[in-house]
């Protein structure tokens, strides 16, 4: 059957459907109702209570009248059954609705009933014209309401018509099942054809619920299957180098040179890594830990394991500032060990660059720290054994895949400082093994957070000054709105001038995205060495910067920042012995959501809790930036609400992949037909096509 075989399908309607993403019979079947009207109970008017209960009432039209003037203008349609009367009221669109009805006609109204005086009424009822010939029993059903849009409503392609088409399709078509029998059975899912019937022509609420569950499952199952296959093809096929020795470097570092005790979280992450690098398959592990949990030392541990086994290690950061900082940190930590560390970033002199590349290829360089410049084509390693990626969410899935494929298939360690909610981690990173570093190194005092209005500025500055006098340092952050970098710069620059005056006894510095990276670095260095006490900046300091002496984070227009971003900023302080303070300053008008975010920041310091709330506010696409996140847009599933289904789908998918990775068994015939094109599409996304 083809779309054109459907009744009442004009060329205009075909076009409207196409504009709505419907180009085939299957697309139309996959066009699900947005909600359902439950008409299984038609109420008698004298049984109504009028306290907002949703009902269907059937009666004859007694009166159609336009009432009121101006803003109070409305259409009233009074219907009567054999027990009483009820009024339908339209405050909008009355002009059009009026033409639909004529007196004495039999109609059904559906909606929430209110009682005004002795009169029952429903505002903007859904309605059906019944016509005397039709059977009232026909109304006692669940009616699907389909989504609409401009194109559809312009061509009068209404819910009823779409419903009619679905009926016709389901009579003629029987879409083949592609989920394996065993999976259907285990999870009590309706078969595909039946599920389409249940979603378009349900006889009860539980039917369409079951159908939705099935379609969500199907969607998540395919997604998980694609991840499982990626893992199977890319990772498990790659033999991992085996780091058998925990030799001189690792032992010496942890026993003699590390200036502190590892936390339990750090120890367990390191032991996970140790297991991976000895297993014979490529490590692909995510270390999740809140800001300040001490991920760098864990990475250093892994790097030393590589060095002990005569391999090189690479350490990637998302920005040059961070790469440079990591370079310094690593150099500092590893000073006693006599290893050759080099920094590779985008804007180095050609001669220096050539020198570094030669060094890498020849094996003279043990560790290279840098931005994604490291994984570019022309960079060749002598024997790369490990790649560490810091701040994963900025890189995304594609880059990780690139590294996994690079040269001799190094082990990969990904570190994320954005605590990713479990639900998201499970989908997004389900081909990764995950270690979580819980808790912060001891001796840390939790940051105190306060929310203040702009007009309190002078008091706040007094407070900041007290802290500076005690020897602390402060960040002052202005928002960066991408559309108008110039304007932000104005904000930050104006703030800088103001603060320079206010804190004339101290050094005030300015850091923003449009500065040359050399200047940025110089300013940052000054702040690190306490030659600058107040650092005014746009959010370029957001991630990873480590200045333990900084004890104040003052955020201007805090209501404009996302939750995770605020949490990242707060993570810049409280990294030393000092009690630290995060002061969130907001403007006059703050949206409800903005207020919620600020409140949440005061309520908790727990990054996971904040990430969970942020994800809920913004949805998964925005949370990570859809483009780089590698997250598909799910049609029906919602990875927050449908976590249970997601877990089931994941287990089922991974089981199938283990059972028969090429899906050649008879049970997987149909699945293979559906999965092959799906996987191809996703692989492109992964950059591995
Ligand atoms: P993040 O996880 O945010 O990358 P870092 O690795 O930058 O955190 O560590 C934050 C700070 O805590 C650094 O100054 C680091 O040297 C220090 N640190 C790390 N582990 C410990 C520990 N076990 N005890 C004390 N300080 C630690
Ligand atoms: Mg870090």
From TrEMBL:
Top-level enzyme category: isomerase
UniProt GO MF annotations: 3'-5' DNA helicase activity; ATP binding; DNA binding; hydrolase activity
Reactions this protein catalyses: Couples ATP hydrolysis with the unwinding of duplex DNA by translocating in the 3'-5' direction; ATP + H2O = ADP + phosphate + H(+)
Helicase ATP-binding domain residues: 276-437
Domain Helicase C-terminal stretches: 459-621
Alphabetical list of PROSITE patterns matching this protein: HELICASE_ATP_BIND_1, HELICASE_CTER
Function per UniProt: Plays a critical role in recombination and DNA repair. Helps process Holliday junction intermediates to mature products by catalyzing branch migration. Has replication fork regression activity, unwinds stalled or blocked replication forks to make a HJ that can be resolved. Has a DNA unwinding activity characteristic of a DNA helicase with 3'-5' polarity.
Family: Belongs to the helicase family. RecG subfamily.
Protein name: ATP-dependent DNA helicase RecG
Name of encoding gene: recG
């Amino acid at each position: 059957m083809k779309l054109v075989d459907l009744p009442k399908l004009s060329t205009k309607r075909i076009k409207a459907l196409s504009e709505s993403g419907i180009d085939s019979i299957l697309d139309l079947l996959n066009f699900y109702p947005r909600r359902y009207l439950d008409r299984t109970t038609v109420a008698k008017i004298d049984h109504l209570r009028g306290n907002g209960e949703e009902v269907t009432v059937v009666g004859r039209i007694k009166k159609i009248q336009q009432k009121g003037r101006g803003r109070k203008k409305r259409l009233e349609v009074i219907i009567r059954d054999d027990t009483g009367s009820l009024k339908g009221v339209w405050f909008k669109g009355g002009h059009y609705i009026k033409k639909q009805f004529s007196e004495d006609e039999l109609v059904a109204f559906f909606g929430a009933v209110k009682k005004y005086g002795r009169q029952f009424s429903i505002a903007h009822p859904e309605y059906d014209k019944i016509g005397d010939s039709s059977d009232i029993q026909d109304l006692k059903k669940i009616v699907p309401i389909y989504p609409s849009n401009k194109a559809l409503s312009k061509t009068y392609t209404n819910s009823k018509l779409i419903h009619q088409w679905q009926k016709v399709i389901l009579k003629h078509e029987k879409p083949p099942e592609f989920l394996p029998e065993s999976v259907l059975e285990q999870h009590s899912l309706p078969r595909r054809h039946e599920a389409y019937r249940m979603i378009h022509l349900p006889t009860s609420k539980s039917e369409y619920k079951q159908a939705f569950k099935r379609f969500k499952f199907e969607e998540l199952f395919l997604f998980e299957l694609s991840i499982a296959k990626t893992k199977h093809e890319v990772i498990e096929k790659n033999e991992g180098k085996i780091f058998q020795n925990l030799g001189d470097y690792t032992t010496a570092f942890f026993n003699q040179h590390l200036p502190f005790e590892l936390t339990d979280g750090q120890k367990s992450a390191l032991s996970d890594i140790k297991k991976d690098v000895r297993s014979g398959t490529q490590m692909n592990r995510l270390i999740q830990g809140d800001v300040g949990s001490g991920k760098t030392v864990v990475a250093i541990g892994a790097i030393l394991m590589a060095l002990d086994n005569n391999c090189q290690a690479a350490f990637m950061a998302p920005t040059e500032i961070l790469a440079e900082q990591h370079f310094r940190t690593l150099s500092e930590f590893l000073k006693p060990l006599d290893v050759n560390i080099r920094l590779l970033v985008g804007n180095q002199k050609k001669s220096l660059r050539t020198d570094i590349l030669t060094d890498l290829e020849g094996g003279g360089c043990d560790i290279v720290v840098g931005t994604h410049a490291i994984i570019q084509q022309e960079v060749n390693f002598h024997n790369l054994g490990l790649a560490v990626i810091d701040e994963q969410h900025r890189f995304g899935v594609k880059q990780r895949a690139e590294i996994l494929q690079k040269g001799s298939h190094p082990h990969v360690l990904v570190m994320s400082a954005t605590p990713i909610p479990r639900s998201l981690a499970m989908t997004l990173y389900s081909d990764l093994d995950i270690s979580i570093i819980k808790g912060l190194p001891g001796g840390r005092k939790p940051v105190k957070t306060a929310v203040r209005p702009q007009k309190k500025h002078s008091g706040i500055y007094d407070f900041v000054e007290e802290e500076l006098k005690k020897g602390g340092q402060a960040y002052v952050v202005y928002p960066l709105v991408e559309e108008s970098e110039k304007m932000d710069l104005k904000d930050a620059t104006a703030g800088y001038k103001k603060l320079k005056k206010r804190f004339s006894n101290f050094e005030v510095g300015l850091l923003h995205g449009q500065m040359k990276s050399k200047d940025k670095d110089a300013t940052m260095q000054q702040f690190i060495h306490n030659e600058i006490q107040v650092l005014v900046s746009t959010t370029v300091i957001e991630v990873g910067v480590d200045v333990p002496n900084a004890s104040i984070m003052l955020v201007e227009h805090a209501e404009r920042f996302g939750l995770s971003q605020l949490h990242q900023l707060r993570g810049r302080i409280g990294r030393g012995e000092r009690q630290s303070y995060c002061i969130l300053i907001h403007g006059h008008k703050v949206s409800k959501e903005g207020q919620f975010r600020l409140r949440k920041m005061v309520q908790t310091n727990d990054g996971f809790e904040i990430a969970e709330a942020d994800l809920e506010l913004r949805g998964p696409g925005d949370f990570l930036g859809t483009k780089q996140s590698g997250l598909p847009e799910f049609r029906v599933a919602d990875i927050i609400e449908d976590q249970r289904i997601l877990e089931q789908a994941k287990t089922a998918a991974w089981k199938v992949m283990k059972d028969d990775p090429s899906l050649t068994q008879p049970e997987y015939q149909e699945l293979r037909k559906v999965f092959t094109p799906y996987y191809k599409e996703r692989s492109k996304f992964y950059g591995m096509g």
